[in-house]
Design brief:
The chain is mostly helical. The protein is built from two helices and no strands.
């Protein structure tokens, strides 16, 4: 992810900053050690009368500056370490925030998937209702046809009754009755 890339880049940058600050301390200490040796040498030469007081004063001034540079480099290293800690914390926080955002997006995706499933279920219910409506319409047509069949059957019964009555009447005519 982008946040993890930023974290990795921040770690690399902060490592470089810390190493640079540490190297500055090492260099300042080496320079201070050299100037301290030069000061001892200048003091020895001056006390033996082989150098001027200005040479000793110059060596003292250089040693003072170099010792101060060591203190400054150590202080700078401390500030760099504080800055690095803050930068790493900010980058870690960004990763945490990205992870939280991802989790929220995944939860939203699941919610959307559930809603899509609900829509699918509703669409299936609509399809079933349409099929039921068509069946009811078909049943209504069947009911009409059945009523017509019942009506025809009733008419057939009526005709059959009339035929029976006619047959009975005809049969009654065929018997001879005596007075």
């Amino acid at each position: 992810s982008t946040a993890r890339s930023v974290l990795a880049q921040t770690q690399a940058d902060t490592n470089l900053e810390v190493n640079t600050a540490k190297e500055a301390v090492v260099q300042a200490k080496a320079t201070a050690t050299n100037s301290a040796i030069n000061l001892v040498s200048a003091q020895s030469l001056y006390s033996q009368g082989f150098s001027a007081k200005t040479d000793l004063d110059t060596a003292k001034a250089i040693d003072g500056v170099d010792q101060s540079l060591v203190k400054s480099a150590i202080h700078s290293l401390g500030l760099v370490n504080q800055k690095v800690a803050a930068d790493l914390q900010a980058a870690n926080d960004a990763v945490g925030s990205a992870i939280a955002s991802l989790a929220a997006a995944q939860a939203e995706t699941q919610t959307v998937a559930a809603r899509i499933a609900d829509v699918g279920s509703a669409a299936a219910a609509v399809g079933q209702a349409k099929a039921n409506l068509q069946a009811a319409i078909g049943n209504g047509a069947n009911d009409t046809l059945k009523r017509q069949d019942v009506q025809k059957a009733a008419e057939a019964v009526t005709q059959a009754k009339a035929l029976v009555a006619y047959g009975k009447a005809e049969m009654a005519k065929s018997f001879i009755h005596s007075p």
